[in-house]
Amino acid sequence: MKIGFIGYGSMGSMIIKGLLGAKAVSMGDIIISTRTPHKLDELKRNYPQITIAENNVTLANKSNKIFLFVTTGQVRNVIEEIKDQLSPDTHIIHISAGLHMELLENIFSGKISRVIPSLTSEVGEGVSLICHNRKVTESEKEFVEDLFGNISSTKVISENDLEVGTDLTSCAPAFMAYMMMCFANAGAQKSNLTQAETEDMVIKTLYGTAKLLNEKEMSFEDVISRVATKGGITEEGIILLEKELPLLFHDLFETTLRKREKVLDDLKKQYI
Ligand SMILES: NC(=O)c1ccc[n+]([C@@H]2O[C@H](COP(=O)([O-])OP(=O)(O)OC[C@H]3O[C@@H](n4cnc5c(N)ncnc54)[C@H](OP(=O)(O)O)[C@@H]3O)[C@@H](O)[C@H]2O)c1
């Protein structure tokens, strides 16, 4: 049996190229299908031994591990389409935000893993969050965790914490990029520096700060106390941030949570 991947969009292409590039899967072992097949032309040129399935049914017929990288709204259609090819041994691994295990179990009673990838896997960094249902065996869990370990760190997490976890790892690149963009914008407005210059300064400083935290194992507090000396200028800035940011982040989680509840309500109409 081959390892099947359905959907070659933003996430699917990043994960598949990442896994092939890291030699985590060999090209002869994988089969791919996607709605617009010509999007696979370049991949096929670079990895000639991969199998391109003519449709999802053919793929499901040849795979017992099937990764679904389609949009959340398409997961049900795909499962319905390949239903006759699925066996108790089939392991479905999907990445769809908001699609709770319980909902998918209403239409597929077998082995399911949920993975929340992050755009940061594009550079082999960040965290992929993973949870499995009770039917997934230890070796199948290990397979999924090892696979995503090739393109990111992995964290197995309770489904109850997956929503906040998703904000912290998968939505976070957008949140962080937006915050840094505002920081650079304000710097450009308050100086003679161009936007391009302030952005470059902020990006390099962000990268350096991440390295300090990660490679030097400094904590957030360590970094703050090394820079914001008592009575100094940075400390004044930190005092302002202390006043404004905790509430803002509290509201951020509340806002995404409300949106998630709405997405879940819509999905319930499809799955229950
Ligand atoms: N973007 C993120 O940072 C992120 C993070 C975590 C999780 N996710 C989740 O990842 C999932 C995919 O997101 P994405 O951003 O990769 O979406 P995307 O770029 O729209 O990719 C979806 C892919 O699935 C294909 N597809 C759709 N319906 C199909 C079908 N019935 N059969 C075969 N292929 C089909 C699409 O084909 P076409 O090329 O024809 O459109 C496209 O290649 C979503 O559920 C999202 O919640 C995204």
Ligand list: NADP nicotinamide-adenine-dinucleotide phosphate
Q: What about the largest sheet?
A: 8 strands, mixed
Strand content: 5-15%
Overall outline: elongated
Query: Average pLDDT, to the nearest integer?
Result: 97
Round the Cα radius of gyration to an integer and report it: 22 Å
Structural class: alpha/beta
Helix content: 40-55%
Strand order of the largest sheet: 3-2-1-4-5-6-7-8
Describe the structure.
With 272 residues, the chain is α/β, with parallel strands linked by helices. Helix content is 55%, strand content 14%. It has ten helices and eight strands. It has helices at 10-21, 41-46, 56-62, 72-82, 101-105, 138-149, 162-189, 195-215, 220-227, 233-271; strands at 2-6, 30-33, 51-52, 63-68, 91-94, 111-116, 127-132, 153-156. Strands 3-2-1-4-5-6-7-8 form an eight-stranded mixed β-sheet, sandwiched between helices. The longest helix is centred in the C-terminal third of the chain and has 39 residues, at 233-271. The protein is elongated, with a radius of gyration of 22 Å. The mean pLDDT is 97.
Observed structural traits:
binds NADP nicotinamide-adenine-dinucleotide phosphate, alpha/beta, ProC C-terminal domain-like fold, single chain, 8 strands, 8-stranded mixed β-sheet
List the helices and strands and how they pair.
Blueprint: E1 2-6, H1 10-21, E2 30-33, H2 41-46, E3 51-52, H3 56-62, E4 63-68, H4 72-82, E5 91-94, H5 101-105, E6 111-116, E7 127-132, H6 138-149, E8 153-156, H7 162-189, H8 195-215, H9 220-227, H10 233-271
Parallel strand pairs: 1-2, 1-4, 2-3, 4-5, 5-6, 7-8
Antiparallel strand pairs: 6-7
Helix pairs in contact: 7-8
This protein binds NADP nicotinamide-adenine-dinucleotide phosphate.
The site of NADP nicotinamide-adenine-dinucleotide phosphate (NAP) has 27 residues, from helix 1 and helix 4.
